[in-house]
Amino acid sequence: MGAAPASRDVISYGMGLAAPLALFFLLFFVAPLLQLFWLSLHNDTAGLHWGLGQYLHFLTDPFSLSVLGSTLLLGAEVTAVCLVLGFPIAWLYQRVGPKLQTIIILIVLLPLLTSVVVRTFAWIVILGRQGIINATLQSLGIIDTPIKLLYTQFGVVIALAQVQMPLMTLPLITALGRIDPNLDDASCSLGAGSWRTFFKIVLPLSLPGVIAGCTLTYAAAITAFITQSLVGGGQMLFMPMYLYQQASTLQNWPFAAAISIIFLLAVLAVVSVFTTLGRMSRGYGGV
Amino acid sequence: MAEAQGGRSLVVDAVTHRYPSGALAVENINLDIKGGEIIALLGPSGCGKTTLLRIIAGFIAQSQGRIIIGDDIVDALPPNRRAVGIVFQNYALFPHLSISENVAYGLAARGIDKATRQREAQRLLELVQLPAMAERLPRQLSGGQQQRVALARALAIKPSILLLDEPFAALDKNLRLDMQIEVKRLQRVSGITTLIVTHDQEEALSMADRVAVLSHGKLEQFGSPSDVYDRPQTLFVNTFVGSTNRMPGIVVSADRTAAKIRLDAGAEIIARPAAGALTEGGRVTVCIRPEHLQFVGDETGFAGVVGMSLPLGATVVHEVTTADGSGVKISQARIGETRALESGAAVRLAPLAPSLANAFPATL
Ligand SMILES: Nc1ncnc2c1ncn2[C@@H]1O[C@H](COP(=O)(O)OP(=O)(O)OP(=O)(O)O)[C@@H](O)[C@H]1O
Ligand SMILES: [Mg+2]
């Protein structure tokens, strides 16, 4: 009887509760974004001429396009490394006793408990010319001269992968934990070996977690200003730093704004591909 | 080999299992199952039924003992090489695969080509009467239908042994009966040696050729349904299978086949020594099922006062309080002239026959 009006009350009540956050977003997210967009529509720094000049400039400039390309590629590489390393950890987590589980979760979460700056400097210490890796390899006589690890794509990918690893591992742990352990046994009793069980059952059923992890890792990796710039150094330029240079050093605000919008759209495109895949795989998770 | 229609024999030879946590889940279990038999593993929750099933399937390596399927000791074989089909209590269908892919899964694992697989899956779905569901996902099926698919999936690999863990527990009563008949039919058609785990005694008694009753990890009795019901070997079996009245008493005289017992309720009756010889003067518990008691007119039985009468459909159960103050239930078929018994009426009761009263040495 009273259910319908009551539930409507609950809904309007809920909306009211969301209002402060909505206002906050409107004021500090939507408004600046619109301002940014408005700024990017100016052809000159003085803001006298309207037009799409900044966008045309970016899209016809091979250098700008290469920065965008290498940033998106960096994201893909970091995501791939995190997935390949994170999956076994998550898989292991579901198959060990409670004590080991605590240890694994601690190791996974540990990076989140230290500041990104600290973690990045640690990587500089590890990867540098006189860093831990080079020193070890040299003392073992494997190499004569230090190999260049810092300020390389490889270095950036490794450092970012470590920094973003929890974003991949946690969704994977959740997704694998949702799989009924009987499915493993069922597959096995039907004659499937462990590899077939993994590829036919475990992997497809963990897809929602894989997609969530990839989305988070990807978005975090390509926007990771600090790690990118410190480990990448001056020679490697990625979108966040490019943007920073244009805005801060060159004071070219309209161009910086256009870069932001293009970067935002590029990220949105990739993320929406992931979410579409996620929606398609949702059916897999069962009930 | 000797087995008639492809079902292989299964021997559980002195199997004991202790979990790493220290829990002794099954203890020295011996079962000798012929090819093509249906066996029910019956016992209360936690008695080790699932553990024994998982040992046979190969998911758990037992601490001691052997599992022999046909002529092979299979202890060293992993589950995927034992050719044992298993139906899980929650069905464990692969949620992301269609019904026909589920059924064909085991065939794909054996490298059978796609066309054959599909044909075989369709044949099995017809066998379990779900031919039109092939393209659906498991969650688009009802519980009973999922159950049938799980059965078809297990049968697809032509297992030599079929294990069912509480297969009907989640189904409502009517559906359960349908599925019990269905499984029995499929089992008869295929001749597969089948082991059904259940804590439902009716299910065990109605479906199985033989019933193994477990308690606290030990095998209490392994025999035909009528053996287990009418000639229980332990007090546990007598009380767990079917309902029974437990009446304390003392042995007046005893030989191997019959014992004269003076019930505390105040009568001497002849009972069957169910667990071996009884000693004169020893305390015993006599078990008599409600349907094995009768009202008697003369002075033979023990006296009591009728408490409540419960009409339960085809039977009427009367609660009678005996002289020593304990309650006894007696059930009577509800035939036309069944006496209506007033509450408070004085009656006398006696067992229908001496063989229907089982005497066990009192454990206290
Ligand atoms: N993985 C395990 N580790 C330790 N002890 C276990 C484990 N699984 C079961 N046990 C213990 O072993 C005993 C037998 O368990 P089992 O699951 O075989 O019982 P069951 O007869 O199948 O019961 P139910 O009817 O409730 O399913 C129980 O006492 C249980 O607590
Ligand atoms: Mg169980």
TrEMBL record, chain A:
<dbReference type="Pfam" id="PF00528">
    <property type="entry name" value="BPD_transp_1"/>
</dbReference>
<feature type="transmembrane region" description="Helical">
    <location>
        <begin position="17"/>
        <end position="41"/>
    </location>
</feature>
<dbReference type="GO" id="GO:0005886">
    <property type="term" value="C:plasma membrane"/>
</dbReference>
<keyword id="KW-0813">Transport</keyword>
<feature type="transmembrane region" description="Helical">
    <location>
        <begin position="103"/>
        <end position="128"/>
    </location>
</feature>
<feature type="transmembrane region" description="Helical">
    <location>
        <begin position="197"/>
        <end position="218"/>
    </location>
</feature>
<keyword id="KW-0472">Membrane</keyword>
<dbReference type="InterPro" id="IPR035906">
    <property type="entry name" value="MetI-like_sf"/>
</dbReference>
<keyword id="KW-1003">Cell membrane</keyword>
<dbReference type="InterPro" id="IPR000515">
    <property type="entry name" value="MetI-like"/>
</dbReference>
<keyword id="KW-1133">Transmembrane helix</keyword>
<feature type="transmembrane region" description="Helical">
    <location>
        <begin position="62"/>
        <end position="91"/>
    </location>
</feature>
<feature type="domain" description="ABC transmembrane type-1">
    <location>
        <begin position="68"/>
        <end position="274"/>
    </location>
</feature>
<comment type="similarity">
    <text>Belongs to the binding-protein-dependent transport system permease family. CysTW subfamily.</text>
</comment>
<protein>
    <submittedName>
        <fullName>Putative spermidine/putrescine transport system permease protein</fullName>
    </submittedName>
</protein>
<feature type="transmembrane region" description="Helical">
    <location>
        <begin position="149"/>
        <end position="177"/>
    </location>
</feature>
<feature type="transmembrane region" description="Helical">
    <location>
        <begin position="255"/>
        <end position="277"/>
    </location>
</feature>
<dbReference type="GO" id="GO:0055085">
    <property type="term" value="P:transmembrane transport"/>
</dbReference>
<keyword id="KW-0812">Transmembrane</keyword>
From TrEMBL, chain B:
<comment type="similarity">
    <text>Belongs to the ABC transporter superfamily.</text>
</comment>
<dbReference type="InterPro" id="IPR050093">
    <property type="entry name" value="ABC_SmlMolc_Importer"/>
</dbReference>
<dbReference type="InterPro" id="IPR017871">
    <property type="entry name" value="ABC_transporter-like_CS"/>
</dbReference>
<dbReference type="InterPro" id="IPR003439">
    <property type="entry name" value="ABC_transporter-like_ATP-bd"/>
</dbReference>
<dbReference type="InterPro" id="IPR003593">
    <property type="entry name" value="AAA+_ATPase"/>
</dbReference>
<dbReference type="Pfam" id="PF08402">
    <property type="entry name" value="TOBE_2"/>
</dbReference>
<dbReference type="InterPro" id="IPR027417">
    <property type="entry name" value="P-loop_NTPase"/>
</dbReference>
<dbReference type="GO" id="GO:0005524">
    <property type="term" value="F:ATP binding"/>
</dbReference>
<keyword id="KW-0813">Transport</keyword>
<feature type="domain" description="ABC transporter">
    <location>
        <begin position="10"/>
        <end position="241"/>
    </location>
</feature>
<dbReference type="GO" id="GO:0022857">
    <property type="term" value="F:transmembrane transporter activity"/>
</dbReference>
<dbReference type="Pfam" id="PF00005">
    <property type="entry name" value="ABC_tran"/>
</dbReference>
<dbReference type="InterPro" id="IPR013611">
    <property type="entry name" value="Transp-assoc_OB_typ2"/>
</dbReference>
<protein>
    <submittedName>
        <fullName>Putative spermidine/putrescine transport system ATP-binding protein</fullName>
    </submittedName>
</protein>
<keyword id="KW-0067">ATP-binding</keyword>
<dbReference type="GO" id="GO:0043190">
    <property type="term" value="C:ATP-binding cassette (ABC) transporter complex"/>
</dbReference>
<dbReference type="InterPro" id="IPR008995">
    <property type="entry name" value="Mo/tungstate-bd_C_term_dom"/>
</dbReference>
<keyword id="KW-0547">Nucleotide-binding</keyword>
<dbReference type="GO" id="GO:0016887">
    <property type="term" value="F:ATP hydrolysis activity"/>
</dbReference>
<comment type="function">
    <text>Involved in beta-(1--&gt;2)glucan export. Transmembrane domains (TMD) form a pore in the inner membrane and the ATP-binding domain (NBD) is responsible for energy generation.</text>
</comment>
<dbReference type="GO" id="GO:0015697">
    <property type="term" value="P:quaternary ammonium group transport"/>
</dbReference>
